[in-house]
Design a protein that fits this description.
Length: 259
């Protein structure tokens, strides 16, 4: 079976620049898999995410998602970034509905199916611990609640692929760990494919089936580490020797990559 997301020998540079952001980048992620990507700052992690979702196109090599070559923004993907970027003049529910107002086929169905979509949004909010918060405005929510909302917005069109680019970077440690569990449960119940970029190695090891370590710029994959910690995993696992050994091992790869 071919991979659900595959980059094969990809080179990419921005604009007309000769300096490559990634070079010879190959990654394959299976359907339903949870992959994490770690690496030094500026190594091309976000570039990988943009290539895999059709926001950038490679200079060389091939990008395939769900069996098709990527030549336009990938509609089966949902994305969330470090900053939640919610629109302050829209309620939480209306922020969630935004992608449905833009992405076909939902766009044309918005008026007819509005009640159904609102219900879907409320259910999604409840699934991340925000039931009854739909009428609040973003500025009435804490940072963690905003990031949960942003996650829901990435999921509202029921994507098969969830792309998370350092989504918890701006949060305190406790909130971050709470959200790890939210993501873990979303992945388990929806069986979606997830690609998570993070600089937090504990986050990568806790959540992922496989962790990819990138080299410094121009980025390519240096190491691929399978995380064989059984699921379901709870936060207690982060204190076990098995867990901390893997974190240490990954850390030494990153240290080498930065040299
Ligand atoms: N829009 C852009 N235009 C020009 N250069 C960019 C752009 N985005 C990223 N780069 C460059 O490409 C390299 C990889 O960037 P990025 O993928 O954002 O790294 P990371 O997410 O790993 O920190 C960096 O050197 C960065 O400066
Ligand atoms: Mg980045």
């Amino acid at each position: 079976m071919s991979a659900f997301v595959a980059l094969e020998g990809v080179d990419h540079a921005y604009g007309t620049s000769d300096t490559l952001a990634v070079e010879g980048l190959s990654v394959a992620v299976e359907q339903g898999e949870f992959a994490a990507v770690v690496g030094p700052s500026g190594c091309g992690k976000s570039t990988l995410m943009k290539l895999a979702t059709g926001l950038q196109f490679p200079r060389a090599g091939k990008v395939m998602v769900a069996g098709a070559q990527v030549n336009a923004p990938v509609k089966i993907a949902g994305m969330a970034f470090q900053a939640p970027t919610l629109l302050p003049w829209r309620s939480t529910v209306d922020n969630l509905l935004l992608p449905l107002e833009i992405v076909p086929p939902y766009r044309g169905e918005m008026r007819r199916r509005k009640a159904e979509f609102r219900e879907r949004a409320e259910k999604l909010l409840a699934s991340v611990g925000l039931s009854g918060q739909g009428n609040k405005f973003p500025w009435e929510l804490s940072g963690g609640m905003q990031q949960r909302t942003s996650l829901c917005r990435a999921l509202i069109h029921e994507p098969q692929l969830l792309m998370l680019d350092e989504p918890f970077g701006a949060l305190d440690a406790f909130t971050r760990e709470e959200l790890w569990c939210v993501i873990r449960d979303l992945h388990a119940t929806r069986k979606i494919t997830v690609i998570l970029v993070t600089h937090d190695l504990r986050e990568a090891v806790f959540l992922a089936d496989r962790v990819f370590v990138m080299s410094s710029r121009p980025g390519r994959i240096l190491v691929e580490r399978k995380i064989d910690i059984p699921r379901p995993r709870d936060l207690e696992v982060t204190f076990t020797p098995q867990f901390t050994d893997i974190v240490h091992e990954l850390r030494s790869h990153i240290v080498k990559a930065r040299q």
